[in-house]
């Protein structure tokens, strides 16, 4: 889950990989980490979003999608619950005046938002 945090969570595949049934995996995960796999993944995605809001010149919607949320409303609500601020207010509070943000196109390229570019580059490398 830490490696593929932006991908949709397939809990059946993750639990099967761990050698547990879905429900036993959820119970065991919660006993060890203190939260369900879904809560853990959501927290990790919000942490990635915090970093992007501080450093990249991307819209909140673009960041929402890049970190793996499919709903802007869910993203904003979970972000505010975890940080105490809306994504917009978080950016305003944490970005220093005069600090240059990474251009959005570079941030999206780094995050893999352009899969056709990655495919083309890997073909050219062969």
- Helix-strand category: mainly alpha
The number of strands is 2
Summarize the main sheet.
2 strands, parallel
Determine the number of helices (DSSP H or I, runs of at least 4 residues): 8
Query: Roughly what fraction of the amino acids lie in strands?
Result: under 5%
Give the overall pLDDT as a whole number.
83
Low-pLDDT ranges: none
With strands numbered from the N-terminus, the spatial order across the biggest sheet is 1-2
What distance lies between the first and last C-alpha atoms, to the nearest angstrom?
Answer: 30 Å
Portion in helices: 55-70%
Shape: elongated
Query: How big is the Rg?
Result: 17 Å
Described by its quaternary structure, the protein is single chain
H and E string: HHHEHHHEHH
Structure description:
The protein is 67% helix and 3% strand. With 126 residues, the chain is mostly helical. α1 (11-18) packs across α2 (22-33). The longest helix has 19 residues, at 37-55. The model has no long low-confidence stretch (mean pLDDT 83). A two-stranded parallel ribbon has the order 1-2.
